[in-house]
Write a structure and sequence with these properties.
- The chain has helices at residues 136-142, 226-229, 291-301, 326-341, 358-369, 387-400, 406-425, 434-440, 443-449, 453-458, 478-488, 531-544, and strands spanning 25-31, 34-46, 49-58, 64-74, 79-88, 91-100, 103-110, 113-120, 126-127, 151-156, 160-176, 179-191, 198-205, 211-216, 221-225, 234-236, 243-249, 254-260, 268-274, 285-286, 289-290, 305-309, 346-356, 376-380, 464-469, 497-502.
- The strands form three sheets. It has a 16-stranded mixed beta sheet that branches. An eight-stranded mixed beta sheet has the order 17-18-22-19-23-24-25-26, with helices on both faces.
- The protein is globular and about 75 Å long.
- It is 24% helix and 36% strand.
- It contains twelve helices and 26 strands.
């Protein structure tokens, strides 16, 4: 799962014609929400098995052109052979793998120089060459009927076989211009060897097991069937009574969202939910859990109109995510405030912002800019330090759990410090890996590393609620007290400030056992935002925004 071929192969032979005539399915491939190419994938049932075949042209940073890629399975989905022939980062690559029982024999030719490698694999392993994303079509078929907790084996040819654990199986609907596609969303953990380690992979398949979409959030890579990749489509696993789709004008593009309304005739207080980092949809679906869908449901039941929206460049929202900063996301929130003010069903004097994680930073910026229009602020699992400090704090915790010595931990910490410094200063990239620069040197990451929550809080005047899960390992509980201290230190009238720490709740605001990120995928389909969290928000907003 690192998009890197290393070790073994030989001269390629063009695969024989398929015994049936069929057109391949077109998929678009995205990196950081921006299209970098496409892949054609064909899955064919032949007399004695299955063939998954494709070709692709993907730009940087993946930089792969596959002239042909093919995985052959028998009728029980046991692999027989693999052939990948193409160009990877400027080098001609041919991979040929044959399977006999529990042995995989690879021959990998790089620029015509072959090397051989034999690996032990399971007889029914699923073959997923990194150079052929379309191979996940076989995984989609094999996932049919699997339950949470199921374990499969996948061979990342020609590197190693890894264990794949299914952490969530959730029925969803994908709305497109032509209608709604029924889908099953599988959340999986791939247990890769170091240095890649554990990776969360999401995959969506239709009722027949055909691949619709897959993504690797940590690597910001996504592949989606062409009709689903359209801005007119959105994936939905959750809906509330009273949900209504809305289009909200922002600066030069529209934001797509959902408004959830209680059944009252009078103007009501309104809440805007502001999602955290990454390509967050309106439900802020994390590890299969529709975090904002749950919060909207509970706040609407408490008498609030609630707006949740796809972040710019995500789902059905316009705009471009790759150039966006925290300040840009704050401007989008501001545009929603202005839009709500014009609605007759909204009490324009009672509009609150509820920000989760990085979304809390955008919410603070908006509240500081619009003191007269934003009446209250709730910050959920929000950092109190600069992104630079938070990233290093998170890394220290992660390294403390890895089976490496102190010298290796210090080396990795020093590398991260150099990367952060290069992003902040704009210099110092010469001695750093190019891959690190591609991942880190972005407008958003710069804005995150340099964000000053104390300064942002000092510009606000609204009542502030800080909610923190005591098992949060991404933003540790001490941050909540510091944020509250910043709020109490503001100039002017002393507005209401409250801190609520919820025992047994993680960064996703969901009850958990350890709170560790690696636990997210195993929380199960019934995981839900703690009612203690939503109850605290509703109670605070009712006090902060009385009629």
């Amino acid at each position: 799962m690192a998009f890197l071929l290393s070790a073994s192969a030989a001269a390629a032979q063009t695969p024989p014609p398929l015994p049936v005539s069929a057109n391949g399915t077109q998929f678009l491939v995205f990196f950081r929400s921006q299209p970098i190419g496409r892949e054609e994938v064909l899955v064919v049932r032949v007399e004695d098995g299955w063939i998954v075949r494709g070709s692709s042209r993907l730009g940087p940073p993946i930089d792969i052109t596959s002239r042909v890629a093919e995985v052959n399975y028998d009728a029980q989905w046991r692999p027989r052979s693999v052939l990948v022939d193409g160009v990877i980062r400027g080098q001609d690559i041919t991979l040929k793998t044959t399977f006999a029982g529990t042995k995989a024999t690879n021959v990998l030719a790089v620029q015509g120089a072959p090397q051989s490698k034999v690996d032990d694999v399971s007889a029914d392993t699923i073959v997923l060459p990194n150079a052929f994303l379309g191979s996940y079509a076989a995984l989609a078929m094999r996932l049919q009927g699997q339950k949470t907790g199921a374990e499969l084996r996948a061979y990342i040819a020609p590197q190693a076989e890894v264990m794949v654990r299914v952490g969530g199986v959730v029925p969803e609907g994908i709305s497109t211009a032509r209608g709604t596609i029924k889908a099953t969303h599988y959340t999986m953990t791939f247990f890769n060897p170091p240095p890649v380690g554990e990776l969360i992979v999401n995959l969506w398949a239709d009722p027949e097991g055909r691949l619709l979409r897959m993504n690797v959030p940590a690597q910001q890579i996504e592949m989606a069937r062409e009709d689903i990749a359209s801005a007119a489509s959105r994936t939905s696993a959750f809906s509330n009574p009273g949900d209504e789709s809305v289009t909200i004008p922002s600066l030069g593009f529209n934001l797509a969202g959902t408004i959830t309304k209680p059944t009252f005739d009078k103007p009501l207080p309104a809440v805007i939910l502001v999602a955290g980092a990454g390509a967050a949809d309106r439900d802020e679906t994390l590890a299969g859990i529709p975090v904002f869908g749950h919060i909207a449901r509970d706040l609407s039941a408490a008498g609030f109109i609630v707006v949740r929206f796809d972040k710019r460049g995500v789902g059905q929202s316009g705009g471009r995510a790759e150039s966006a900063t925290i300040a840009d996301y704050a401007e989008d929130v501001r545009q929603i405030v202005l839009w709500l003010e014009k609605r007759k069903d909204v009490d324009k004097n009672r509009i609150a912002l509820v920000g989760h994680s990085e979304g809390a930073l955008a919410a603070m910026l908006t509240a500081g800019r619009e003191r007269g229009k934003v009446a209250a602020l709730a910050l959920l699992a929000a950092p109190s330090a600069s992104g630079n400090e938070v990233v290093l704090e998170q890394q220290r915790l992660l390294l403390s759990k890895m089976p490496i010595d102190d010298a290796q931990r210090a080396e990795r910490q020093a590398l991260q410090q150099k990367i952060n410094a290069a992003v902040i200063k704009g210099t110092g990239w010469t001695d750093l890996p190019e891959q690190a620069r591609r991942a880190a040197d972005t407008p958003w990451f710069y804005s995150f590393l340099t964000f000053n929550p104390e300064k942002a809080m000092s510009d606000t005047r609204q009542p502030v609620l800080v909610v923190q899960g005591e098992l949060d390992t991404q933003v540790q509980p001490a941050h909540a007290d510091k944020l509250a201290d910043f709020a109490r230190a503001r100039k002017g009238d002393k507005a209401l400030v409250e801190v609520v720490k919820v025992p047994g709740v993680n960064h996703l605001l969901v009850p958990a056992k350890t709170g560790d990120v690696t636990e997210y995928a195993s929380l199960g389909p019934d995981a839900a935002v703690s009612p203690q969290v939503t109850g605290a928000i509703a109670a605070f907003l009712s006090k902060a925004m009385p009629e």
